[in-house]
Hints:
mainly alpha; 2 strands; Wheat Germ Agglutinin (Isolectin 2), domain 1; two-stranded antiparallel ribbon; 7 helices
Amino acid sequence: MQCDMCGKKKATVHLTEIVDEQMSEMHLCEECARNKSAQMEQQFGLGDLLAGLSDAGKTASAADPKNALVCSGCGLNYEDFRKFGRLGCGQCYTSFKEHLEGLLRKIHGSSRHLGKVPVSLLPPGTAPAPALNLSADVAAAPLTVPTVEDLKKQLHTAINAEDFEQAALLRDKIRALEQKK
Length: 181
């Protein structure tokens, strides 16, 4: 498939744009994709988006105490975060905590990290990992790893329920744990 913009090179980037509920697809080569990306960033930059979300309806002034906020880990100030839309290190979350909670809630729906494993996929009887709060220390309690015996019980339950896909996954986990020993 050829690039929709230049028509010369092979399209390796595929964009789908939805504007006014109308979907359009573009197939671009790398060079045209870079140009399109630069155009989009000029029109609507990530830093502007994040700044708008974090300070909706507020105007920044030199006397604003947020402008004086500086990360103790990397030296990034809050104004630079607003400008570029990127934090400098993990310590930034603690340094800018008061101002990031609302932003994270708007973007992710929560200011807490709930983990990467969906609750529906946790083994029966396993409690989900406790939510990490921004006010808590970065170090979290380690997750419990199921034992081979626990996995074998789950395997038998899956076989009895004729859930053979789950049984195969459990079998593979058991083998992996046994090989580590």
